[in-house]
Amino acid sequence: MSRVNAPYLVFLGNEARPLMAKTGIGIVQWAPEHCVGQCRLSDDAINLGLEDLTPAEAAAKGARSLLIGIANVGGTISPAWRRVLVDALEAGLDVVAGMHERLKSDPELAALAEKKGRRLVDLRDPPEALPIGSGKARSGRRVLTVGTDCAVGKKYTALAIWKELRRRGQHADFCATGQTGVLISGKGFAIDSVVSDFISGAAEYLSPASDPEHWSVIEGQGSIFHPAYAGVSLGLLHGSQPEAIVLCHEAGRERLGFFEDFPVPDLQLAIDRHLEAARLTSPDVRCAGISLNTSRKNETEARQLCEELADRLSVPVIDPIRIGAEPIVDALLSVPAGT
User: Could you list the residue ranges forming a coiled coil in this record (predicted)?
Assistant: First the structure.
């Protein structure tokens, strides 16, 4: 990792909701080799299947960082976590967070980290002097995951596509735009921490011009249908200039998570609106498929739903965990570079 010392003790506090523990879940799913154990404040907290350890116990087992695995609404650091954060620094661990509230802004934690020679790592600190978006065409191939809502599988889908492209011998990079993706890949930054005028420029920075056959697989954020987070989604869509998008959706979700007044959009409408917006900077953009999170369904129901939607919408439909990304990668590679 370029910015974070692994392996990690994954801190989950009292969080029992998988949606709010997606950072910890994602790390265990995609980079289990970086995880020594989990630290929970109660048995009611979500269990990632790791050994329950205190910071001192984790340090003795080789952990180098306490990673806050929670991504709560507003990105705040709870006062209930303070004792564990202090214990981690006392045990010789760095403390890593992707919260909007910065660790370094806490005078007590900052002073203790300096005293102990440890680091407070805020993953939402973007690079300095990012440009504004240019909108100019650039070389290379780019695919962006987009969503009907937040937390529907955009990161998982991008990682699955990236790994399948690499398996086939394609030159490809995973472009992380959120804290969990940064921890998995070791590069990128949380694009929702960028000042709004520079979001499209940040997306260009993350997926720069490259060899014409090279793929940049860009992790999407939020949704253009979301009343709170559409801004970052649109800036990312324009700056990425994707030749293809993959629409991500959780099967069975009818209302936006934690925004129950807003319905989840129809899938065809979501495809059409994303393509319409993307054409500002990528006139020939296409939809390469739909990625479903079918975790609420059994195996038979999940596969049947994917087949039904593929027939109705005339695009490949996958679950990146149950089915894998092969059909969508087939669709991506079916169009030669430069066409």
Answer: none
